Amino acid sequence: MRLFEISEEARSTGVENKHVNGITADSREFSAGNIFVCIKGENFDSHTLAKDMLEKGAAAVITERDLNLKGQIIVPNTRKYYAKLSSAYFGNPTERLKLVAATGTNGKSTIIAMIKHILETAGCKTGSVGTVGYDTAGKMYEAHLTVPYQFELYRLFGEMADNGAEYCVIEASSQALSQNRFADEIFECAIFTNLTQDHLDWHKTMENYYLSKRSLFDMTKSAVVNKDNKYGEKLIKYIKSEKSIPLVTYSANDIADCYAVNIKSSASGVSYWFSSQLEEQSFPLKLSMPGLYNAANSIGAISVCVNLGISIGDAVNALSSFKGVKGRSELIYSGDFTVICDYAHTEDALTKFLSDVKKLTQGRVICVFGAPGERDVMKRPLMGEAVDKQADYIIVTSDNPRFESQESIIEQVIKGIKDTPYDTYTDRRKAIEAALKMAEKGDIIALCGKGHETYQVIGDEYLHFDEREIVLNAVTV
If 0-12 CB within 10 Å is exposed, 13-18 middle and 19+ buried, where does residue 61 land? Predict the structure, then answer.
């Protein structure tokens, strides 16, 4: 592929129409023939590498300012242009896909899995991009980012389209939105779940965090918004005043366009009547995932699918066969005691998950959790406080420490623990084994933070670490 085939701007800059074999913004992944995208980050400006990349054989460098280089292409926003180039390189694959996105702090993975299940039950071949993995409607890839960077993202879109997918459902993370990983896309529908403190290491303020999420609703044909939190209410006002797109509100606690009546939760799942003011109908639903928050997730997923043209009855019936999501309220072991794992890694998610677990246990709730390294430091004592209010015994341990001191992370978490007895282990495996040894009949061990992940990030290494294997090996000895 030649440069002029994917870049109209290149034609007017005087750069040579070279062969292009890839696009990257990471100098560590660069090889001759790549287009190198210069990005000014918070801590490093890769414009300083542009000359070196050209000398190493770059087909062109994309810049935001004049560097007086023969192979430069100057654009207003290199991140946006990175997505545009990547899309063109793979033949603009989203022209053959209908995109659906979920954004918010918690619930995204479960909601996109539910939407995918409903669509596939309706006969629509569907791919997905999210924290649990990348499904190209033919092959599954492990995910280390919720949304991969631009070139890999559009490669996945291309594979989905080539595999005959009609839809792609996406967890639209705040980082992906703020870094313009989507190339001027128009989504069929976007859903907002909630917003609680997270990622402030990146966004700095809750308002910035909210605005990054809100930007998705400037790129969608229709919207579904959870009204059960103040940021949902704020987004509803924004859409009604600034956007002329169809809007559906949903709630698990109050009357909305779509809402739940008579919610009942047990260890085996949650049941309720799905009620809609849109069609003035109610449908009974039994979901094989426990918890009020999963009732909310299912209401949101159904609401999205109704916006996509699927009847409420068909969507509700489809979810009756939904088996859940790996690492989301996932039952690992059930015997004299029970072990459940969940991806809960924010104050809000821990509160919701553990409060539901507490209702189900006949004994104690033993919670094993940690806070990730090199991420929002301010949320760590808040996580400790949330677990302190819900658990009967706490084991604080590591959760992807990266290059940060595990001891330091644990010290910050336990600042929020005031009343509940606790222990600490820097080795997460030993923490889980300690919980298993102390568990008695009727207890529930809640493993929080890792969820679907089968690795532990220490330094820059991804080391194999599967909590399911650790638990099952221990209880079958």
Answer: buried
Rounded CA-CA distance 197/214 in Å is: 16
Q: What pLDDT is recorded for position 265? A: 81
Paired with 89 in beta bridges are none
* Residue 102 to residue 115: CA distance in whole angstroms: 10
Distance between CA atoms of residues 135 and 150, nearest Å = 17
| Euclidean distance between CA atoms 100 and 178, whole angstroms | 18
Sign of the CA dihedral with 180 first, then 457, 365, and 472 last: positive
The residue type found at 461 is: E
* pTM of the shown model: 0.84
How much is the average pLDDT of 63-68?
Answer: 96
A 10 A CB-CB count for 403 gives 10
What b-and-e string marks burial along 248-277, b requiring 16 or more CB atoms within 10 Å of the CB?
A: bbbbbeeebbbbbeeeebebebbbbebbbe
Cα atoms in the Cβ-side hemisphere of radius 13 Å centred on 201: 11
Q: For the segment 201-211, what is each residue's pLDDT rounded down to a tens digit? A: 555 688 888 99
Give the model's pLDDT for residue 356. Answer: 84
Q: What is the dihedral of CA 155, 157, 162, 166, to 10 degrees?
A: 180
